[in-house]
Amino acid sequence: MTQYFLGIDGGGSNCRARLRDAEGHLLGEGTSGSANIRLGLDLIWGHVLEATDQALAQAGLTREAFARTAIGLGLAGITTAEDAARTIAAGPRFAFASAGTDAHAAVLGAFSGRDGAILITGTGSAGYAWVKGKGHAVGGWGFEVSDDGSAAVLGREATRVALHAYDGLAPRSAFTDAVMAHFNDQPSQIVAWATTARPKDYGTLAPLILSHAQDGDAVAVALIEQAARDLGRYIRRLNELGAAQVCLVGGMAGVLTPWLAPWTRPLLATPEQDAIEGALLMAKGAGNGLSPVTSEVVS
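^ ATPase BadF/BadG/BcrA/BcrD type, sequence as received from the core. Prediction below:
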């Protein structure tokens, strides 16, 4: 018999776990590192279990409880049912396991399982609508080719405009100077850094962009305005897919919302619950088997 429910929300920067009992009482929580499956299933399961162990310890439990625990995994990087299935297969066995994109967990939490859409803007970005029992993903294909309006893409663009300014191909400003100073005014250091930099590394430049944009630096403002326009395109598309309201969530949501176009305001809603609660709904079977990016395994 299932006695415990474990919700996992994993993104490009961190992984969060929450454990509840069958009556819904909070038993424990935990946090750890990145949980985007593109980083490797061994790595992300290490972080999932690290966060889970913290939650179990608070509840006075050990991994022995897995056999009586249903887990819902909302993880960045899952884009197909096959991704979800192999993610579940790579981890330990639970009484029940369901996996899907972090966007799926977020929309379930935001609207308590009802129809709606979310637009995640954090280290990465992704739009997701849950309408009439069907999931519709928009974007979220990785910062190299997608993830518009995210911290990682802002960081990537910051290095590009700084290098363009350094080469005299684009306007120089206090912002571009600050980016170059971050790399000791050496373009070669940017290249060396970019060779191994991950999305969260690019995302560390976002505060620098925002700070200079708030000071009115034209180059930084242009980057923020473009990010806001990109988010607007996602909001419009999610609405076209049938979502009457969209919740903007993630670490960049609060700072980018003021830059959105006025027409977006009537479509925006405040999340009712967070993505971990959405993952807990997945653990309880809500929305499973209907979304193209959700897989479930009963063991």
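The longest strand covers residues 4-10.
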